[in-house]
């Protein structure tokens, strides 16, 4: 197996850094799946390994990488699956936050004492020579027999779907609600209305958003349950801390964020930005 990629565009380097930082906030371990045209980051809940991932992020390698070469397990299975700690990866890339004019970011699969993703960050210098910062991030190679655990999740059948308001605005609201309760109820209907609610023995707080835009799904009959009135609210109650962590994805500057509600079962969030998509699956919990 071989992998080597190089980014030369500073905007792509920053965006990749933001994606990794967002993922690092959501889980201690993740799987990096590398194919000839895409790079995926996959998070599975520990207790639900083998079921649908909790997070599925994918980036178009041609948008990010100036150079990209990989050889997978075999010609028939031309992919590489690596398990790593995203926090260690994020710390490696932290030097890029202060390096506003990083010249390049190179990553490659190496074997030192153990398999590693080696990062070579070329930084500017006052001299004629650039500075090269090298970091090794330990990884574990996932054998072919376990790849089926990290398949792309199916789109859930939902009852309501809306575009969320700006994430920074939502984050401002949710951070305050987080001080009141550990649970958050999201409610939406098919008229573009959305409400966020927390309820405790002593207080009940709700925030409403009206007339939000709604996605148009090509396969709506297959994915969307259209029973009932358009004004009927569909709801799911989720862990407010996990929802707040997702909202920190605003640093990716998404063009759109979709919220699909599977009544009483799940909130499915879709963050989209050019050649990046990130799906986050929040299971419902007892209120």
Specify the CATH architecture of the largest domain: Box
Strand order of the largest sheet: 10-6-2-3-4-18-17-16-11
Number of domains: 2
Order of helices and strands: EHEEEHEEHHEEEEEHEEEHEHEEE
Q: What is the average of the pLDDT values?
A: 88
Radius of gyration: 21 Å
Q: Return the CATH topology of the largest domain.
A: Proliferating Cell Nuclear Antigen
Residue share in helices? 10-25%
Terminal CA distance reads 47 Å
Q: How many strands?
A: 18
How would you summarize the topology of this molecule?
Layout: E1 2-7, H1 10-26, E2 30-34, E3 38-43, E4 55-60, H2 61-64, E5 67-71, E6 80-84, H3 86-93, H4 95-98, E7 104-111, E8 115-123, E9 131-138, E10 140-141, E11 160-163, H5 167-177, E12 183-188, E13 194-199, E14 204-209, H6 220-223, E15 234-239, H7 240-247, E16 256-262, E17 266-273, E18 276-283
